[in-house]
Design goal:
This protein has 490 residues and is mainly alpha-helical. It has helices at residues 2-26, 38-48, 51-54, 58-66, 73-82, 87-96, 102-105, 130-133, 136-167, 172-191, 199-214, 219-222, 240-269, 277-299, 302-326, 334-364, 384-387, 394-426, 476-489, and strands spanning 465-468, 471-474. The protein is elongated and about 85 Å long.
Length: 490
């Protein structure tokens, strides 16, 4: 008897999983063709409950859809809200999963014609009021983001820097290693999260931090940071300027990442979004970069202004394009996709050539570089005695340091940002099964041919309008219920 109950539960989980897969593949957002991916489903569910954005990945969705993980009421309700299913459709899935009491699932029509109390009338993304986008759950997500992106790595960076300072270790190679390891720690932490639903936010955070920290790669060589920390008493030729610079960069990247996420939710999830897709994407990508650049103008030397102006402009354009590629209101046909791909490759090659020429020019004409001896707030005299090398070595050191930092920046922008843009264009609606909308009041189209179609004996993908609890809804539940009862009767 126990084995029969276990087999029945497994069958329910498998049937519900196939139904969730059918809904996901038939889902459309404002007419955009293309199948909703498993990552896209988590992105939509994360808008309802943030834990689905932070804790799960596509493998979790695969386990749901295969029936390897038993369904829960909370998950199915979040799933229904995310895909804008009616309360009757969600109740049908709950009934199929055995998560409703028999008296509730078989109640007369007049008793349950109202929506399920735990489900609010769902609104598709882009139509939600701004109050529904930013709530207490979002505040908790900000706190977790602060702790994981700033507090933990900042504590490690600061602790290591103070340890080196207390031991008096200030050799140039050791400081270079310290900057590289600190930068790699934060960047690696961000890359590990890029497969989550908020991958653009993570990529934005990593990009801002790396572009800021790449400029620090020349600091161990010239021993002068762009913020001027080295000019304070007892800080020159010690690990403290490196420590403070990395922590400041980490804080700026944190603020930029949070601002990017806030603006993304505002422009893509609220009713106050900009109508033009290009303007909507630009309003998300550029304001955080502008704030970071404004900070550098005030607190960094003039040489950093020029460097950040160029790299932030390119980064802003790249993220604007990445946002456009993900905008559900922007459609690209096959010809436009190929044209975009060719244009992106050509532009990357041109910018790479331009960057290489700029690095070559800086190496042969180091006089074009500006010394970090002043900011808008203060200026100071460079004390070469405290730095540990004579003034006539400055030009050669600056030449090597600038080339090293610019080369690292160029490699990152070409491989990471350029590569991400090319992949985004290449995968644009590629290989997706097309779907169409039919019928009225929640009728979703049939899912067309795919590589490994689900056998019709297991799930009927012709989702025609029917009736359940007095509402016109999709009725695969009727077939599932009869199939389930036949299995149980055997």
């Amino acid at each position: 008897m126990a084995s029969d109950e276990t087999a029945a539960r497994r069958l329910r989980a498998k049937q519900v999983g196939m139904l969730m897969q059918a809904y996901r593949r038939a889902y459309q957002l404002e007419g955009r063709t293309g199948r909703l991916s498993q990552e896209g489903l988590l992105r939509l569910m994360g808008q309802v409950d943030s834990k689905y954005s932070d804790r799960y990945d596509h493998s979790t969705v695969a386990r749901w859809e295969s029936g390897a993980t038993r369904p829960t009421r909370e998950r199915l309700e979040v799933f229904g809200k995310a895909l804008s299913l009616s309360s009757a459709e969600v109740q049908g899935m709950l009934t199929l999963a055995g998560l409703l009491e028999q008296k509730d699932s078989l109640a007369p029509v007049h008793e349950i014609t109202e929506p399920v109390p735990t489900l609010e009338a769902p609104q598709p993304p882009g139509k939600q009021p701004i109050e529904a986008v930013y709530g207490s759950s979002y505040s908790g997500e900000v706190i977790r983001y602060f702790l994981s992106r700033f507090a933990l790595p900042g504590l490690i960076v600061a602790g290591t820097g103070f340890l080196l300072a207390s031991l008096g270790w200030n050799a140039a190679w050791m400081m270079m290693l310290y900057v590289i390891v600190a930068t790699a720690l934060v960047v690696a932490q961000g890359f590990l999260r890029l497969r989550r639903s908020n991958d653009l936010r993570e990529l934005f955070f990593v990009t801002v931090f790396f572009l800021l920290s790449a400029n620090l790669l020349q600091v161990p060589i010239i021993r002068m940071d762009p913020f001027g920390f080295y000019a304070f008493s007892d800080f020159a030729n010690t690990p403290i300027p490196y420590l403070l610079s990395v922590v400041v960069n980490l804080m700026l990247a944190l603020v930029a990442g949070l601002m990017f996420d806030f603006l993304w939710r505002w422009q893509y999830l609220s009713a106050r979004q900009a109508k033009n897709p290009s303007r909507r994407a630009a309003l998300v990508a550029y304001p955080p970069l502008f704030c970071v650049y404004a900070f550098s103008v005030v607190f960094c030397s003039a040489g950093a202004w020029i460097f950040f102006l160029l790299v932030f402009a390119i980064a802003g354009a790249t993220f604007t394009m990445l946002l456009l590629l993900r905008d559900n209101k922007v459609k690209f046909n096959e010809w436009e996709r190929r044209l975009l791909l060719q244009a992106a490759v050509a532009l990357i090659l041109v910018l790479t050539t331009f960057g290489g020429a700029a690095i070559f020019t800086l190496y042969w004409e180091p006089s074009l570089m500006v010394l970090p001896d002043h900011t808008l707030l203060r200026s100071w005299e460079i004390d070469f005695n405290s730095l540990g090398y004579p003034p006539d070595e400055l030009v050669e050191r600056y030449r090597i340091g600038a080339v090293w930092s610019c080369l690292a920046t160029l490699i990152f922008m070409v491989t990471v940002l350029g590569g991400r843009l090319i992949v985004g264009i290449y995968r644009l609606d590629a290989g997706e099964a097309s779907t169409t909308v039919e019928g009225t009041a929640g009728a979703v189209a049939t899912v067309t041919t795919e590589t490994n179609p689900v056998p019709r004996s297991k799930i009927n993908l012709n989702l025609w309008p029917g009736r359940l609890t007095g509402h016109r809804v999709l009725t695969p539940f009727r077939d599932f219920a009869s199939h389930l009862m036949s299995k149980l009767s055997h």
